[in-house]
Amino acid sequence: MTQMLAPETLPARLYSDREVYETERRNIFAKSWLLIAHESQLASQGAYVATMAAGYPIIVVRGENGVIRAFHNVCRHRAGPLADDGHGKCEGQLVCRYHGWRYALDGRLASARDFGPATGFDPRDYALMPLKCESWRGFVFVNMDERADALHTALAPLIAKTAHLDLGAMRLERRTTHDMACNWKTYVENYLEGYHIALVHPFLNSVVDATRYEVELAAPIVFHRAPPHDDSPVGGLWAWAWPCLGVNVYADGILMERMWPLSATHTRIDYLYFFVDGIERAVMERSIAASEITTAEDIAITQAVQRNLDAGVYTTGRLSPKHEVGVGWFQREVKRALDL
User: How far apart (Å, rounded) are the C-alpha atoms in residues 340 and 337?
Assistant: First the structure.
């Protein structure tokens, strides 16, 4: 019987090198669909959400006729911010917080404060830098690559798997954030396999049958399944979308998990918890508590792994053909983006 070859892992140096990270920003994050907001956060004209995604400042805003647009959160004058990170509402225009340049909600420069009749200055040349912006079931994504495929193409396997779910009935209930000292790939790879559950997650292992854990690769989506032992809140469909989004669907809600890189050595996890209307507070809190237990364990192990990757004693390892199919695909995509 022919045995399946165990693929070699990425070299340890790729998990801390600053130049590698800058290449990933350009070749991965600037060319991928990134979840930025939910339409419920942009309920009225002028409502906006601003954030940093892999070091890129982004703002999405609802304009006239209900159109949601995305821009770099960067004034064309001297790179001032149009809004602080977070969500809010502007009154008709986006105004640079540095020198007061004003922009219409469609990105056009409306006013350059105290510029007067400057020679050679045409306001039409200084509109905000636009990004592609599309929604799926109320979730607002952006892409910095104007040549990128449509969002529905990138999410096609996920769209098919969740077509029967009434995601429109979900409301954003809570956001939690965790910063950790590890490279973004270290955390993503942990998410992409269930090989570690029996050793790292005692609670999760007690409520799901980890021996029947399955990983299905439907690139660029990776699906996970582990049958629950009872009516555990962790039972459901788990999915991951390239390059850094976890989509965890449960009976009464959905958890969108953004795995934002902050630098070559630090990562931020944003958890966006959505629940159906009318859910009991106790049920909601139980689901969030279960998630937070698993998160704390994942943070501890990924930071420990990062410490060892940085120690200079490990170069490469091997991936399990049975358990780490998703990790293998992810690492191949990273190598392709880095031209390795």
Answer: 8
Closest CA to 317 of 16, 8, 12, 5: 8
> Which domains occur in the chain, in start order?
34-152 (2.102.10.10), 155-337 (3.90.380.10)
- Strand ranges, E, within the chain: 34-38, 47-53, 56-62, 68-72, 86-89, 93-95, 102-104, 109-111, 130-136, 139-143, 170-180, 214-218, 221-225, 237-241, 245-249, 253-261, 267-276
- The amino acid occupying position 179 is D
Distance, C-alpha 288 to centroid of its chain: 19
Instruction: Indicate the pLDDT class of residue 121, thresholds 50, 70 and 90.
Output: confident
> Measured between alpha carbons, how far is residue 236 from residues 4, 130, 251, 287 in Å?
30, 37, 7, 12
pLDDT tens digits, one per residue of 192-245: 999 998 899 888 878 777 778 888 999 999 998 877 776 555 556 889 999 999
| Cα separation, 321 vs 217, whole angstroms | 13
pTM of structure: 0.93
